[in-house]
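Question (not urgent): is this output format expected?
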Amino acid sequence: MSKPAEHEAAAPTASFLTRLYDWWRYHDELGSLPRDELEHMAGEFGMTGRDLEDLAAKGPHAADLLYRRMAALGLSRSDVERIGHGLMRDLEKTCACCNDKSQCKKDLAARSGDAAWKDYCPNAVSLESVVKTKGRFPL
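Got this back:
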């Protein structure tokens, strides 16, 4: 997948994470919100308030390795979204909270075609499913 396709996959969530991070910084931090308001806002994204705080603290580029992995697999955001509503958001949240970013970054730089990533990536099963079903759904 080319760089433009990689950026196509990243654009909507990057803007979501960027807006969330900017909003959070503007308001000093999510902790200044009343807890019920934070929980309500988080619920709109299918998260708890604590999950939203954790995600916002990671910054707007927390899921960038997902887009690189998708590019290495020849996947676009559209490919993922055709499989299931909300799947892309779930992949992004999972990647943003992953503890294996260092290994993932090394693997993508050195050997993006190597299957070793499947052993540690919490999104491996989902991404492999998208690869296998790509092209089966109408555009």
